Amino acid sequence: MEGPREIWDKEAGQNGTLANCYGVTKDPTSNYMFVMKYYDNHDLYSYLIKINKFLSFKNIVEMLWDITGGLEHLHGNKLIHGNIHWGNILINEIVINNDIELVEARIADVGMHGPVDKKNSNESCRVHPFIAPEILKGLTPTIASDIYSLGMIMWALSAGFRPWGNWIHDHNLATKICSGLHPEITEGIPNVYITLMKQCLDPDPSKRPTVLQLIDTLEIWNQVYSD
């Protein structure tokens, strides 16, 4: 049976939908680590600080298309990520004549969680604002909880800063998320974007869209905003 590392190599690595992984190494403490491609713009967190909110809607759609494509390969192979946040979305910016022509986004930390039917108790490395409410309540990560995390990525892309930025990542924030609330939506965002984001953030996991439904919508957006 293939594991997450093999799926990464065979499926996503060949078509560029996930962050490039060159191999696996082991540090002196016996922890395994992936050897990754170096991305000049680091992660989404660093990139949003660098550009200071100046991100066109076209660039947002490009990045979502990439991220969703990576997620589709995981879910299509019955794998979950389980810990999507802006620190493991790696960014590559293509600049021509001082203009940003393309912003590529790749999901990293793949293979740390595994099959959809595998329980994982590694809670310590998860980032509160991006965690689905059902996970904060103690349930196992699922494909639907990955979609919630993607919804929070959508929020961060549209706002340009950290979700729940004024809140300490503690029990109070977890309680707020579990109650079904999400950060205030930034003004000036297209209604179609807001609608899709709210669907991803639905407190009921069964009501969130699948990754294939997201791809269908983003494909239309890509056609509209690529001109």
Automatic annotation (TrEMBL):
Source superkingdom: Eukaryota
Residues in coiled coil: none
Regions crossing the membrane: none
Signal peptide, first to last residue: none
Pfam families associated with the record: PK_Tyr_Ser-Thr
Matches recorded under Gene3D superfamilies: Transferase(Phosphotransferase) domain 1
UniProt domain Protein kinase: residue ranges: 1-222
InterPro entries membership: Kinase-like_dom_sf (IPR011009), Prot_kinase_dom (IPR000719), Ser-Thr/Tyr_kinase_cat_dom (IPR001245), Ser/Thr_Kinases-Pseudokinases (IPR051681)
UniProt-recorded Gene Ontology molecular function terms: ATP binding; protein serine/threonine kinase activity
Record's protein name: 17965_t:CDS:1
Organism: Funneliformis geosporum
